[in-house]
Specification:
With 88 residues, this protein is an all-alpha fold. The protein has helices at residues 2-26, 30-55, 60-84. It is flat and about 50 Å long.
């Protein structure tokens, strides 16, 4: 029963990610696109963690952590580029 609920949750996350991709494509400002990217990465991480739970292999948790750190650093770089005009 829990597995069915988790698969339904993953399906919902995929739908939300597709809507976020549409928002990133048609967002009027750059900040809308950055927020949409963060939503997509959050949904991907949640999907990885759900599948790690369902598969009973918690090695994927490390992959999710690395993905979160990369997305966070990428977001900081994009915001610094927007604010100052250069990254370094």
């Amino acid at each position: 029963m829990v597995e069915i609920a988790l698969y339904a949750l993953v399906f919902g996350l995929i739908i939300i990610s597709l809507l976020s991709i549409a928002r990133a494509y048609s967002g009027p400002t750059v900040l809308d696109r950055v927020v949409a990217m963060n939503m997509i990465t959050t949904n991907v991480v949640l999907t990885i963690l759900i599948f790690a739970y369902l598969d009973n292999s918690f090695y994927y948790v490390d992959v999710a952590f690395v993905f979160v750190l990369g997305a966070f650093i990428g977001t900081l770089c994009i915001l610094k580029l927007l604010r100052e005009g250069h990254i370094l």
